[in-house]
Amino acid sequence: MRSTLDTVAAIGLAIGGAFGLAGTFVASDALRETVWTIDGVGIVVATALLVVKYQRLGNDLVAAGFLTFLAGESLLLAGNAAGLQASVPSYAGGIALWAAGLVMVSAQATFALWMRLTASVAAVLFTVSALMILWGAPLLPTSAPLPALGYPFLVLTFIGWIWTLLKPER
Fold first, then answer.
1. For burial by CB atoms within 10 Å, which of 30, 45, 94, 162 has the most?
2. What's the CA gap between 67 and 51, in Å, rounded?
3. Residue 118: burial class (beta carbons within 10 Å; 0-12, 13-18, 19+)
4. Is 41 helix (H, G, I), strand (E, B) or coil?
């Protein structure tokens, strides 16, 4: 039987993925910041529950990966209200932690290979983006091709995690 906490985590990931992508297409600063705040809260709640789930299962590396991802999302959430330009320092730190968390979650065969691959691609793209920002490239969270190219891979990873949480047990 599926846990209520698994359902809540899946809903948080779905909200995070949907609102996160939607925010990249919003023209209004206030609306984008609001949408991304909803996205961030959903992801923080979901990853906190996933930390507890995988810690209880004895999968410490995956739990620590979700905790690292949560820390990154918290940095992103903290920078939201500052606007795109002012949020860049916390954004760079946040996506660097996202990348580390994704690698940790994907290091073991806990999730299906395709999820681990999408997470790895997202991690590489976010790492490159963070390094570019640190080296002075004028990247914003909405810049294309980087970091925007990483978001679809992150959302695909979320879809995989949601599927894992909601699939019927055998």
1. 94
2. 6
3. buried
4. helix
- Express each pLDDT in 31-80 by its tens digit: 999 999 999 999 999 999 999 999 999 999 999 999 999 999 999 999 99
Tokens 């795109």 correspond to 84
Q: Amino acid identity, residue 154?
A: L
Looking at the chain, the number of H-run helices and the number of E-run strands are 6, 0
Contact status, residue 148 vs residue 140, Cβ threshold 8 Å: no
CA nearest to 123, candidates 159, 85, 149: 149
Q: What are 10-31's pLDDT values in tens digits?
A: 999 999 999 999 998 898 999 9
pTM given for the model: 0.95
Classify residue 107 by burial, with Cβ atoms within 10 Å: 0-12, 13-18, 19+. Answer: middle
pLDDT, one tens digit per residue, over 85-104 is 999 999 999 999 999 999 99
Beta-carbon contacts of residue 8 (< 8 Å; ≥ 6 apart)? 45, 46, 49
CA-based diameter of the chain, in Å?
51
